[in-house]
Write the structure tokens for this entry.
Amino acid sequence: MDQQLLADAVDNLYPARMQMAFSLGWHIIFSCFGITFPALVLFAEWRAYRRADADLERLAHTWAKAMGVMFAAGAVSGTILSFEMGILWPGLMERFGEVFGFPFILEGFTFFIEAIFLGIYLFSWGRLSPRAHLLTGLPIIPAGIAGALFVISANAWMNTPEGFEIDAGGRVVDVDVIDAMFNPSTAAQWLHMIIAAFMVVGFTVASIYAVGMLRGRRTRYHRLGLVIPLTLAAIATPVQIGVGDYIANVVAETQPVKLAAMEGLYRTGTGVPLSLGGIYTDDELRYALRIPWGLSLLVTHDPDGQVVGLETVGPQLRPPVNVVHLSYNVMVGIGFALMLITLAMAWTWFRHRRLPGSRWFLRGVALSGVASIVAMEAGWVTTEVGRQPWVVYEKLKTADAVSSAPGLYLGLWAVLAVYAVLTFLTVYTLRRLAHHHDDAVAPQEVAAEPLDSTGERPAG
Amino acid sequence: MNLPDAVLTVMFLALIAYALFGGADFGAGIWDLLAGGTAKGRPQRTLIEHSIGPVWEANHVWLIFVLVVLWTGFPPAFAAIASTLYIPLTLAGFGMIVRGGAFAFRKTASTPGMQRFLGGSFALSSVVTPFFLGAMVGGIASGRVPPGVAAGSVLTSWINPTSVLGGVLAVLSCAYLAAAFLCGDARREAPDLAEVFRRRALITAFVTGAVAIAGIFVLRGDAPVLFDQLLGRGLAPIVLSAAAGAVSIGLLLGRRYIWARVAAGAAVTAVLCGWAAGQYPYVLPAHLTIDDAAAGRGTLTAVLVAVAVGSILLIPALILMYRMFQTVPAATPHPPGLYADHDHTGRGTPPT
Ligand code: HDD
Ligand code: HEM
Ligand code: HEM
């Protein structure tokens, strides 16, 4: 019997990790829009109202509808995630639910506030005075940002667990949920994620209009659609690089093995170079580009500072180095590449008091949306895979958290199939919103003359 | 009432809210399924869409709330339920994805084929999802979910007579609630439809009552412990539920729709209370008591404080939402371009 259980758990481990990674990786894209898109939409609507600007109003309304669709996609994928926490990782929830479950309760309240006011905001478009309408949208912004804080604090806790003791019998005691929430990683991860969300939303929205402009649609409407989100993202980028340095220092201090994996560093040493790229085999990083003293400088702010290597823990306790190192390099590389857009904007602004309009600039912006999403996903892979084999760092192994239910591994295929359909529908709907602004309707809206189920408008 | 009981009560209240609001939402989808052919069903589908469009997301957050309170306050119970019952939970999850996705996206779908496909998915998943949730309740209540990770059978824990009863009752209750809710909405928007939904509410009320009575015999055979408890401590709520159901039928006959909603809600609430009373003091009947499953005092206290503070924000927001959708006329948005020319409409010049 125990043999069977063990065998099931072993079978389940890899598919369960993939299922979790896939559903989270999907959800997080829409979460970014839940966190920062409302601010962008309300800003556009506010300017439209202040300046009586019809183009901006149309833009704001299109964005608002897109926000409704994104929110629906985020809500359904988030619901599944909360099921998966128990379906896939009962060993984690059983032992530690009382320690890190609390922020999810707080998050429940922010979801309510978001869902309620988003419903009101979209429903009352054109039904309330502009001023009252703006007010109905306002609560969505703090709710999104607070919600991110709560959920991120749960993830940060898995990286640097605090707020409990384990007694002689191995039981979790003396739980302090507030301590657990505000653990050493929370502040850094939250800041880094919020700014990542600004970058993802800013660059993605701007890239859509950049593509339109490259195809010759250079109207004022398209320019506004490009400039507003792009300015936001361009400001966020240098800030993000600074915060990236801060979070890397937090990781070096609290999770040295993860840092060593990020850098592909086997031996603990002083005056360690920074390694870019390369392949890690046989305890060594080969073919990497090395910047002398780089890593010691970044981590300890001293060229001769000491950096801990992977050798300090047994082979069983090391994460898969190549995945972590590569995804870390991808994130940082894209961060600096996106900085070029900021620099180009700053340069033409200070030299010519205008925004760059060359095709090369637009091509760069057109790519920036996908690039920022890739950077964000790579960052998450760094964080999550870099923590392996632990699900709760140095407290609980992922292999001990996974469910031993027979057949669980089949869930991965089902999830992939369902999400493929969901992705298709989301993209399809957003495309229709972009191309048929006026007759497309967001899920929360109630059209004056609703579409009937054949898709034709009632005559009249 | 001790601390664990208090936290469980909070969770149970959220569960009732989910059963009422989420349930009416599912039920509306069921009526969408039964509305008939494309042309014939159009007015009904429009009404349904108007009624649930702006609120469906908020209605479903109740379920999230139930889950997070369960995993924080009673971690071993959550781990046992989610792992043993992972199949119906996954299927209910897929049902929610399909339902949410189809509902959200069908409005923008352009081709009739796509619209019909999405509409059908929405309606079908509205039946399937509450069925699986009800089946889970049946499995828990009949003592088939032991504590521990996947310690129960992953099949018979939800494929058994009590689960089937739970699933069928859940679907019927949703349909009944929705019909009762839609009568009132129909009177405001499309008065002739009110009669249609009135007839349906009456039929489902009778069918649900009949199934519930037949269910008592199912329980006697399949879950004798639960049966005894229901006839003991659970008897008062069950009788109350039957009474509320009867009252709602009377109110529907008299076309007093607002009160009929209240009575229908009371009937469903009372059934849930009967279940809760029937399995008290167990979270997992026959295996795990509330106190044994409960988290430590610190965590439970924090949960109660958070819920109290959160409610101060949440309750006014909920009231605002429901009031708004009941009072602001749905059919008259201003023409587009409102902001662009609002300085000509005398609404006040925009500050510069
Ligand atoms: C647009 C996205 C984006 C960009 C441009 C960057 N990051 Fe990042 N990074 C993230 C998006 C992100 C993220 C997805 O948001 C992560 C995953 C977990 C987290 O909190 O943030 C992350 C994690 C993450 C971690 C791991 C944290 C942990 O495991 O606790 C480190 C050390 C860095 N980042 C460092 C950087 C540096 C030095 C950057 C310099 C260019 C950088 N990031 C750019
Ligand atoms: C609050 C947020 C998050 C929580 C609570 C969380 C939780 C978890 C849990 C419980 C696991 C399984 C155990 C483990 O492998 O360590 C996991 C794995 C994983 N998660 Fe996260 N996660 C979060 C955010 C994310 C996001 C946004 C991504 C985006 C891609 C992500 C990517 C992954 C990956 C790639 C794995 C697999 C790691 C591996 O097994 O090698 N996570 N996460
Ligand atoms: C295991 C981890 C996670 C779980 C269990 C989870 C759960 C959920 C749930 C249940 C919802 C739907 C709420 C509704 O119905 O309105 C949701 C939405 C949302 N989640 Fe997550 N989530 C997780 C990870 C994350 C992460 C890492 C972030 C971002 C930092 C995030 C940010 C959001 C936001 C902003 C929303 C609002 C809906 C939207 O705009 O898409 N979540 N999440």
